[in-house]
Amino acid sequence: MKMPKEIVEKIFAQGLRQSPNEACGYLAGTGDTVVKAIALTNVDHSPEHFSFDPKEQFAAVRQLRAEGLEILAVYHTHPGTPARPSAEDIRLAYDPDVIYVIASLRQGGRDIRAFRIRQGTVTNETLVVEENVHG
Prior knowledge:
Blueprint lengths: L1 E3 H14 L5 E7 L2 E8 L13 H13 L3 E9 L8 H5 L7 E6 L6 E8 L2 E5 L2 E3 L5
Parallel strand pairs: 1-8, 4-5
Antiparallel strand pairs: 2-3, 2-4, 5-6, 6-7
């Protein structure tokens, strides 16, 4: 998956604003290229897990469809832990077709990684952060 650096920066900025709780949202685009991040409210208000606000979630899905984009990934931040799925993340990963992007804010870190989680099995996905947004 490819993602512009400006979207990565948006994820980290949202994470810092919402810390110590996890921040979350959708990454959308076409093919394997992210072109848009949609920040969603973590209704759990927790530093250890997140749940989307259902109204925001459905509004985001409608908006993306109208724009001809598909959801490529779900992202969330880990305020105090590494950029890897927690036991809770693995347990709650219901969609085997979506990529899970995790951004770690630990110790001022800037680590962001992508994973697939299928039936409790985690595999690393390639995440390329692109400097030039327009290729």
